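Next comes a concrete protein, fold included:
___
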Amino acid sequence: MNRRSLLTLLTLVPAATLLETACGAGSTNSTSGAPASMVTTPSGQATGQATATGSGGTLVIGMTAGNIPYPDTPPDQGFEGRRFVGYQIYDALARFNLNQGNTVPTPHPGLAESWKVAEDKLTWTFKLRQGVKFHDGTDFNADAVIFQMDRIMKKDSEFFSPLLFASNASNTLMIDSYRAVDPATVEIQTKYPYSFLPWEMAFILFPSPTAVKKYGNKEYVKYPVGTGPFKVTKYVDGQVMELVPNDRYWAGKPQLDKLILRPMPDPAARLAALESGGINWAEVPPPDSLDQLKQQGYQVLLRTYPHTIILVSNLYEPPFNNPKVRVALQYAADRNGMCGNLLHNVCTPATQYMYKESPWYDPAPSLNYEYDPQKAKQLLAEAGYPNGFTMTIAYPTSGSGNMWPEPMMEFMQASFKDVGVEMKLVPLEWNDIISLYRAGFGDKQNQKYNGIYFSVAPIAPSSLLSFASWRIPPKGCCNPMGYQSPEVDKLLQQAQSEFDPTKQNELLKQVMDIVAKDSPVTFVVHDLNLRILSPKVHGFVQPMSWFADLNHVWVQK
């Protein structure tokens, strides 16, 4: 599928920005950083806070994406598009505190300097940061906010975009109305009490109304204009994007002279480009290259964060409409072998949706799903599959946060074969996987698959709404499995209307307990956010997040 065909397809899917895509878990609680052994730099410099001083240089990033993320609001290519393009060109009303590595980032003031919710728990008031300008000199104000909200929500608006409606829907479906109170104040009314709203406001990006009106929705992406830390100076689809610092950035001018993004879906190509000097920042190179890179003086960065590789199950059809089959595969997965033998410890085994540092992690020993092929066979026999079965799984060839899908799937294929389950693998481009995920297995054209390999970044509490029945496509996004649990629905409704973080966390922990037992997805591994930096790259803090702050990075010339 070509790029234009993909964009056309996405306009037909009533779906949303994947808070779960790598398609949204953080919390207001602090979590511990990675052990020191997980973060290696030539000098031993701590990566929890930037300590080196300097400025300038050109940072060249080799991304895992198969293409330059389309620079709209939001970009495509999943969360990698947001990480390297979206949050560099644009700002949102809230932003994550990514300049530290000791806690999971949470929403902090961005284009809104403050917000509050009224006693009715429905009316939110956002006080906008004054004096901010878009890259083209247009003032950022309440009118600019309303313009973008109309563009992504109001279907009779002149500049309404069906594509952006789809890709922002999970962040806006709870919004009932919005209005400009004055040039520096915006009021948002929700349909029901929704405590997660500040998280949603960290995902809605704001373009220059002047630029959108000048070029129109179709051509705007050739001339993207935001308020963000970097401005686009060159964009060649499929090849490169070049950006320079925004001298007037409200949070301070970035320290780089230039930022260059290159799509490199092949891990070996990223490694070769790094070692030849073609790039000085590589996302997830081949895991067996890490010792070699350390010896050569490269910075090898790893850190725990909310990110999980899963197999999303089709619950509409046999065999995965049988819960015993789903649990059997949990026991059939050799996660320790995958992390230790295949991936050289750049991951940890995932026996739940959330990783252990999360406040929503369930420590109950019965949910650990240790590798137990005999138990898997027993459960398959009890489910009526004593001789196993054959299933078809789609997986991405590369892309946002997917680590190394092909060798990982082949490893799982071998583990499942040991218990009698044959897994047929179907490679797809990452954006096609995202489209499949958004449309769900209820869509007739997707029923040929029993599951898909997917990377989720449960950054926000609203990420767990993926297990809510009201998020099943085509009514919502993103519960592609068709998973339904009245108890989970009740807990999620309580959590989204609970404004006390401690109580909210307890409710979400209960959700994770039930999801682990029901197993609508097979847990694979928790990614450790591997990236390699040249020794000449300074000032970067490895956050406990999928996203990254590039504002303080500089490169020694």
